[in-house]
Amino acid sequence: MSGKRFEGRVAVITGAASGIGAATARLMAREGARLVLGDISADGIATIASELGATGVTGDVSKQADVEALIRAAVDAHGRIDILFNNAGIGSYGNSVEMEAEQWERVIAIDLHSVFYACKAAIPHMPEGSAIVNTASISGLGGDYRFAAYNAAKGAVINYTRALAMDHAKAGIRVNALCPGLVDTPITSDLNQIPGLREDWLSRIPMGRAAKPEEMAAVVAFLASDDASYVTGSIMVADGGTTACTGQPD
Ligand code: NAD
Asked: Total domain count for the chain?
């Protein structure tokens, strides 16, 4: 790994209290970033903010005013934002007949609208050389059975990432998406309660295991760093080979 890639850089991370967001916050802190961390969990954000000496902001990313408050906290404290990691998200189990409209709307609001709210508020404060990373999913590239709303939200995050990359390239802001496969975080531990689902997913991963959150953080850090200075509009898959497979059995 190169030296301190984020020395003095101001990074805002949503969904930073757990999983991929927390692992990325820890990595960026080790590499010198000044962090402003957001999460809906007040206890969770207080814990990680105090661990890393970061600013912690409690809020719900599905509410535009809460996202604006997070961005304002970063700008008030540091005067600019160099890295925006739009990572907060929830899973959602159910096909279109099984789920109610409230569930659909909640998933689209948390997993998709939040990315727009954060980009709209942050981009005017992002100087040339800044980077945005959006957490999508391989569920946005192909469909997962019975994850209708999640597939829709993550697919939209992927194409929105391309639109952002194009619209802000001349301002020197790079925008990329991370598409994780299965990662061991609380989001997936909830799904362990669905009989057989985890075993089924694992059987489809050529590497034969889920990722650790730290393995996603390493990819996010690359995309957010100057090492990726010519990378924008890319959809970075980190899935242990899952989407490389046609679905034929081993
Ligand atoms: P996680 O549950 O560990 O972390 C998600 C964080 O987002 C939590 O801290 C949670 O409190 C926060 N959050 C949830 N709703 C929020 C809201 N309304 N406002 C603010 N914060 C909110 O799960 P994770 O796996 O680290 O998930 C991070 C991202 O990775 C999500 O966007 C998820 O969809 C995506 N992802 C995860 C996997 C996986 O297998 N774990 C795979 C693909 C994509």
From this structure: 1
